[in-house]
Amino acid sequence: RGGAARALTRVSLPRRCGLAGGRSYSGGSAYPSVSLTCPLPGVPKAVFAAAEGRERFETRVTVLENGLRVASQNKFGQFCTVGVLVNSGSRHEAKYLSGISHFLEKLAFSSTAQFGSKDEILLTLEKHGGICDCQASRDTIMYAVSAEARGLDTVVNLLADVALRPRLSDEEIDMTRAAVRFELEDLNMRPDPEPLLTEMIHAAAYRDNTVGLNRFCPVENTDKIGREVLHSYLRNYYTPDRMVLAGVGIEHEQLVECARKHLLGVEPAWGSGEARDVDRSVAQYTGGIVKVEKDMSDVSLGPTPIPELTHIMIGLESCSFLEEDFIPFAVLNMMMGGGGSFSAGGPGKGMFTRLYLNVLNRHHWMYNATSYHHSYEDTGLLCIHASADPKQVREMVEIITREFILMAGAVGEVELERAKTQLKSMLMMNLESRPVIFEDVGRQVLATNTRKLPHELCALISQVKSADIKRVVTKMLHKKPAVAALGDLTDLPTYEHIQAALSSRDGRLPRVYRLFR
C-alpha cells in the first residue's frame, strides 16, 4: 500500500467514539474499528444530497386568457414529453359521419401552414432528437412529441401548427382513406380479436350513444369524409377551452411562455367562429348483445395454427373515473386478473388472480380468461373476455357468469392485500415512464383541472376494504349485462339466459332440455 494509505490507517483516534483498539491488514499495518456514527478526524464534513421539496414535483396548472390549460410536471433528465390533448373523440360524432376521429388520428403530423410536408416535420424534430405520435380514443385525441428539453419552443410551435393549422390536402386525405381501409381489413384478419370485441362490447353496452359509437371509421364512410366535413367538426371541438397543453420534464414558466407565444390568439385553419353544435350527451347504459358469426378456422394458418376459437365478452356497468367507487373497481379488476392459458411467469403475472385459480387452472380447455375495466368521465364497464372451442361455449359462459356472482361473495384478506399491492406496484412502475406521466397529467387535467399524485392514489388504494368490493359488485349485478360474441355461435346461450344466470344466486344458466341432439 502507498504511504498515504498507511498513514491514514495509523491516525490516533479519540477513545470516546469507540474507536480504540484495532485489527491488522494482511500487510501487517493496523486499522481501527471505526464507528461510522462519529466524524473522522481530518476528513471534510460530508454534504448529503437532500430531496427537494415535494412542491417542486407537483403538477402545476395555469389557465390562459383563451381558456387553454397548461399543465406541467418536473422530471429529471435532458428529454421532455410535450403534447396537446383535446376533449374530442368518437363519442362526439353522433351528429357527424362516424369515423372523423379515426381520420384525424391518421392525418396528424401531415403538412401544416408552416411545414410543407410530413418529412419536413420529422426533419425538424430530428434536430432535437424528437419523435411524434397521435392517438385517438373514444373521448380524447392526443398529439405528443418527445424531444430534447432545449428544443421546447420549436416543439410547442410545431404542436400548435399540427393541432390548429393542418392543410388537409386532397392528396393527404386520399392517402388517409387508403390507410383506414387497410387498418379495417387488418382488424378483421388479426388472430387477436380483442380490439374487435372491445368495439362490440361498447356497442352492446351503450347502443347508439356516446362511448357506444364506433371508434373505427365504417368502410362506407371512407369516401364521404373530406376537408369540409373535417373542418365543420374541428370548428366545434378544437377550441382552446377543450384543450390541455401538457409537458413532463420542463419548467412550468417556460412551458407557459411558449403556450402564450404559439397558442394564444392563433387563427385556426377552419376560422375562429364560435362552437355552436357541441355534443354534451351523458352516456346512457343500455345493455344488450352484439353477435358476429364468423368462420375462425383459417385465422392463423401455418406450421402451428391457432385452433378455431369462439370469443365471448360479458360486461356490466361500473362507474366513472370521477367517482369514489373507481378505486374499489380498479382493485376488483386486479383481483380478477387473468390472461392467456400460455402466459408464463410467477405471481407478478397474475397467477394468483381469480381467473387463473378458478378458471384457467381448473378448465384446461379454456384458452383465455381476462378481466378489463374501461372507465370514462360519466360511466364505466367491467368485462371478462373468455375464449374456448366452439363446442364448449355454453359451459364457458356459465363459468364466467359464476365468476361474476362470486365477486359479491367473501373476499379473503390475503387475496385483497395482494390485489392492492399489485395495483400499487403497477401504478408506480408505469409512472416511471415519462410518456405515461405525460398522458396521466394531460388526461387528469383535461377531466378535472387538477391531478391526483401517485402517493394520493396509493393512499386511496390502501383504504379499500372487502366491504367496499362487495358493495360495488352488488350494485353492478343489478344492471343488465352487455354481451359480445364472435366466432361459431351455434351453442351460445340466449341473452335472456345469460341475464337470468347473472340474476341467480349461483350464476348457473337455466337448464335446456332437447328432444333431439
TrEMBL record:
It comes from the Eukaryota. One of its GO terms (cellular component) is mitochondrial inner membrane. Pfam families: Peptidase_M16 (PF00675), Peptidase_M16_C (PF05193). Residues 225-423 form the Peptidase M16 C-terminal domain. One of its GO terms (molecular function) is metalloendopeptidase activity. Residues 69-218 form the Peptidase M16 N-terminal domain. It is found in: Mitochondrion inner membrane; Mitochondrion matrix. Gene3D superfamilies: Metalloenzyme, LuxS/M16 peptidase-like. One of its GO terms (biological process) is protein processing involved in protein targeting to mitochondrion. InterPro entries: Metalloenz_LuxS/M16, MPP/UQCRC_Complex, Pept_M16_N, Pept_M16_Zn_BS, Peptidase_M16_C. Keywords: Membrane, Mitochondrion, Mitochondrion inner membrane, Transit peptide. Heterodimer of PMPCA (alpha) and PMPCB (beta) subunits, forming the mitochondrial processing protease (MPP) in which PMPCA is involved in substrate recognition and binding and PMPCB is the catalytic subunit. Belongs to the peptidase M16 family. Substrate recognition and binding subunit of the essential mitochondrial processing protease (MPP), which cleaves the mitochondrial sequence off newly imported precursors proteins. This is Mitochondrial-processing peptidase subunit alpha. The lineage of its organism: Eukaryota, Metazoa, Chordata, Craniata, Vertebrata. The gene is Pmpca.
